[in-house]
Q: What sequence folds into this?
């Protein structure tokens, strides 16, 4: 029976410098050569999963935006969009606290350049996604937005949580020292990477006992708990290591290859 293996991107496929170890590339290709499935499974929107180096590894599909976008062999098999009314209400609430947000979708990222003027994180995103970055305007029709990401100061966390937690999944990431802020992902209620994995398995007829996932951070917790074999990267957070069934080495120390060998998948 074929196995399905799901890989987070940041801190799992990519190291902290967005480099992919050669051992990761070769081991994922061996995994597929043996007849198994390999999927990207990321909190990033599909628009932000565009690195040729990453995609050229050769994956069977992509789970993006915390389970709200699922594709197999280039075909979309599931999509959950946020309504324009939802997005406008969220933006209005965030703006009341002076909080900026990025709208993330299948095809584009939307941002108000004036709000993010001089922001090095936005500059990084622009370089990453290039022509998939659009200016957020009043008349934009939000037909392909799966989730939002907000830029928070610590003092605003509880206020935003109280405002949104009833209707949305909120994922608070650890403060990123390089960018001096905390990133919050705002996801439709009931969705996570685990939901995306479930959609893939239903589509392909993969039993849960044949599922594996690699992750390193807070938005991987549901995914690691859902699959039969949850694998934490050695460079991951303590909570993900506690949740995992197996802790491998760090990404830059051939952690993916070592774990795939441990589970006899290659």
A:
């Amino acid at each position: 029976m074929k196995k399905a293996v799901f890989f987070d991107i940041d801190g799992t496929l990519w190291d902290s410098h967005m480099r992919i170890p050669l051992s990761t590339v070769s081991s994922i290709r061996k995994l597929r050569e043996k007849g198994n499935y390999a999927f990207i499974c990321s909190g990033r929107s599909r628009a932000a999963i565009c690195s040729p180096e990453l995609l050229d590894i050769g994956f069977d599909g992509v789970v993006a935006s915390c389970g709200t976008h699922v594709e197999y062999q280039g075909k979309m098999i599931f999509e959950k969009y946020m309504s324009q009314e939802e997005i406008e209400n969220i933006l209005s609430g965030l703006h009341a606290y002076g909080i900026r947000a990025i709208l993330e979708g299948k095809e584009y990222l939307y941002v108000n350049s004036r709000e993010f003027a001089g922001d090095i994180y936005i500059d990084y995103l622009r370089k990453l996604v290039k022509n998939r970055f659009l200016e957020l305007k009043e008349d934009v029709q939000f037909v392909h937005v799966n989730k939002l990401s907000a830029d928070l100061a610590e003092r605003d966390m509880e206020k935003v949580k109280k405002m949104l937690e009833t209707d949305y999944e909120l994922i608070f990431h650890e403060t990123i020292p390089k960018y001096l802020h905390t990133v919050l992902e705002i996801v439709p209620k009931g969705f996570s990477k685990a939901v995306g994995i479930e959609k893939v398995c239903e589509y392909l007829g993969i039993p849960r006992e044949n599922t594996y996932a690699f992750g390193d951070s807070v938005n991987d917790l549901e995914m690691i708990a859902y699959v039969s074999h949850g694998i934490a990267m050695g460079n991951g957070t303590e909570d993900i290591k506690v949740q995992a069934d197996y802790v491998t080495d760090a990404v830059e120390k051939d952690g993916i290859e070592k774990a795939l060998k441990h589970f006899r998948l290659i």
